[in-house]
TrEMBL record, chain A:
<feature type="transmembrane region" description="Helical">
    <location>
        <begin position="100"/>
        <end position="121"/>
    </location>
</feature>
<feature type="transmembrane region" description="Helical">
    <location>
        <begin position="332"/>
        <end position="352"/>
    </location>
</feature>
<dbReference type="GO" id="GO:0005886">
    <property type="term" value="C:plasma membrane"/>
</dbReference>
<protein>
    <recommendedName>
        <fullName>NADH-quinone oxidoreductase subunit H</fullName>
        <ecNumber>7.1.1.-</ecNumber>
    </recommendedName>
</protein>
<feature type="transmembrane region" description="Helical">
    <location>
        <begin position="127"/>
        <end position="148"/>
    </location>
</feature>
<dbReference type="GO" id="GO:0048038">
    <property type="term" value="F:quinone binding"/>
</dbReference>
<keyword id="KW-0560">Oxidoreductase</keyword>
<dbReference type="GO" id="GO:0009060">
    <property type="term" value="P:aerobic respiration"/>
</dbReference>
<feature type="transmembrane region" description="Helical">
    <location>
        <begin position="201"/>
        <end position="221"/>
    </location>
</feature>
TrEMBL record, chain B:
<keyword id="KW-0479">Metal-binding</keyword>
<keyword id="KW-0408">Iron</keyword>
<dbReference type="InterPro" id="IPR010226">
    <property type="entry name" value="NADH_quinone_OxRdtase_chainI"/>
</dbReference>
<keyword id="KW-0677">Repeat</keyword>
<keyword id="KW-1003">Cell membrane</keyword>
<keyword id="KW-0830">Ubiquinone</keyword>
<keyword id="KW-0874">Quinone</keyword>
<feature type="domain" description="4Fe-4S ferredoxin-type">
    <location>
        <begin position="57"/>
        <end position="86"/>
    </location>
</feature>
<dbReference type="Pfam" id="PF12838">
    <property type="entry name" value="Fer4_7"/>
</dbReference>
């Protein structure tokens, strides 16, 4: 087994020096898993807090401000509460599927993190079909949702799961196609190469008009795919009485909840990588300081996350038919036209490069 | 062509919406409308339209304007209002007329829908702004709205 774990070249050398190679690679994997799980947990908690803070500002409220300084420990308290809650379930549920579903959702979210190039030295798994890998993974998340609805043995959860499934699968098309548009410029599905191409200008500049269109489509479809408002029919609390995760409680519910936020982060991360030069600094101002890559990556991702939160707290929720109309009647045809446009741009060498 | 103009209009209205909330976002540091409740309990001002509980207004002579018409009792969807009435002699005219004995309001069942207040033809009942209504025993939530010894204001019935 020879998986290139880019993150750990130095650690790899260090470990190989003191133990046999097979043990070294296992230790390495465990180390990386720990790093990513920590990152995952912190990012999840932070995003929930950020969402609440941002939402408060958008709605002229105060937001969490009790626990710790300015409410910074609010989500930690929330997490403790969720962990300590009782795990209830329904008697007639399909126990195995019911318990399996949250892990499906959360593990796919975790796996997707692995291929994202947070910085040149911080990418666990630089696979040559990176983009495809991520798109494929996000489809597995749907299975988790459908399992949750089916396993709950509750017709409302089932309907909720169907609704969510239809939404995720539909918008997946747009996500995939808009990423494909950008792949036409880079000519590679490998994330590290996609980043390298952008040393001559971020892809959104290189591809100009079709790239901006692709970005807009990507953001809309990405927001929908993560089931966030205005596309959050999945759990429209006030209108529908929650969806596929109605029967889940405590930590199992928290998995779905956390996965939503991590997915949001992943969507933002892919957008940063594919449109905004990942960890490359604007105009190469910190080219000589590669360790700043992580900072740039997170800064860009935060801007996009903020944009998604802005969507959420501005737009009213769509109805299911409007949701499908948006995808099948508007986004998809536009996307296909956009691909042709991009192909023409690339073919006639109209891309802008510095 | 309406297809493309739809898209254009859609994007335009979405951006307008984002402009509005964006402005809120930038200004909300100054203008948050939330109140820090337990701390500001002494200075807290409730809004005029806030529905705390139904009360009956009494003036300085301990007179109210409830004629006992029972419209509120009828209007209440969950029977939170009970009016115990009898016919008594009007001291001025000497005629018999309907007078309330007790206007009972079961606050514990009230959904604050406001239908009773709207239904009252003489504006005898209105909303109070108090809201810390938790008690340990729900019998405390059954209120008699007319104060003891109160009577109807003159000239209301006509
Ligand atoms: S507010 Fe509504 S529920 Fe309450 S007493 Fe009046 S009519 Fe009844
Ligand atoms: S409170 Fe108003 S509606 Fe109710 S009995 Fe008295 S006058 Fe009639």
């Amino acid at each position: 087994m020879n998986i290139s774990l880019t993150l750990s070249e130095k650690t790899h050398e260090l470990l190989s020096a003191i133990m046999p190679p097979s043990v070294a690679s296992i230790v390495e994997m465990i180390l990386i898993a720990v790093v990513y799980l920590t990152f995952f947990a912190i990012a999840g908690l932070f995003l929930v807090l950020l969402e609440r803070k941002v939402a408060a500002r958008f709605q002229l409220r105060l937001g969490p401000n009790r626990v710790g300084f300015q409410g910074w420990f609010q989500t930690v308290a929330d997490a403790l509460k969720l962990v300590s809650k009782e795990l209830t379930g329904t008697v007639k549920a399909d126990k195995f599927l019911y318990n399996l579903a949250p892990y499906f959702v959360i593990i796919t979210a975790l796996m997707a993190l692995a291929v994202i190039p947070f910085a040149g030295y911080f990418q666990a798994f630089d696979i040559n079909i990176g983009v495809l890998f991520i798109i494929a993974l996000s489809s597995i998340g749907v299975i988790g949702i459908l399992l949750a609805g089916w396993g709950s043995n509750n017709k409302f959860a089932m309907i909720g799961a169907m609704r969510s499934g239809v939404q995720t699968i539909s918008y997946e098309l747009s996500v995939g196609l808009s990423l494909l548009t950008m792949i036409l410029i880079t000519g590679s599905l490998q994330f590290s190469e996609i980043v390298e191409v952008q040393r001559n200008g971020w892809l959104i500049v290189q591809g100009h008009i079709p790239a901006v269109l692709a970005f807009m489509i990507y953001m809309i479809a990405g927001t929908a795919e993560t089931n966030r408002a205005p596309f959050d029919l999945v759990e429209a609390e006030s209108e529908l009485g929650a969806g596929f995760h109605t029967e889940y409680s405590g930590m199992k519910f928290a998995y779905f909840f956390l996965a939503e936020f991590i997915n949001m982060f992943i969507i933002a991360s892919i957008a940063v990588t594919v449109f905004f030069g990942a960890y490359l600094s604007p105009f190469g101002i910190t080219e000589s300081l590669p360790w700043l890559g992580l900072f740039w990556f997170l800064a860009k991702a935060l801007v996009l996350l903020f944009l998604m939160m802005w969507f959420r707290w501005t737009f009213p929720r769509l109805r299911i038919d409007q949701l499908l109309t948006l995808e099948w009647k508007y986004l998809l045809p536009l996307n296909l036209m956009n691909i042709v446009l991009m192909a023409v741009v690339v073919w006639l060498k109209l891309t802008i490069q510095f | 062509m309406s297809y493309f103009s739809d898209i254009y209009n859609g994007v335009k209205t979405l951006l307008t919406g984002m402009g509005v909330t964006g402005k809120y976002f930038l200004n909300s540091g100054k203008g948050a409308i939330t109140q820090q409740y337990p701390e500001n309990r002494d200075t807290l001002q409730m809004f005029e339209r806030f529905r705390g509980e139904v009360v009956m207004h009494h003036d300085e002579n301990n007179e109210h304007s409830c004629t006992g018409c029972q419209k509120c009792e009828l209007a209440c969807p969950n029977g939170s209002i009970e009016i115990i009435w009898d016919r008594g002699l009007d001291p001025e005219t000497g005629k018999k007329k309907k007078m309330i004995d007790k206007h009972i309001y079961h606050f514990g069942m009230c959904t604050q829908c406001g239908l009773c207040v709207n239904a009252c033809p003489s504006n005898a009942i209105e909303w109070a702004q108090n809201f810390e209504n938790s008690v340990y025993d729900r019998t405390q939530l059954t209120r008699v709205l007319n104060k003891p010894g109160s009577k109807v204001k003159a000239g209301i019935e006509e």
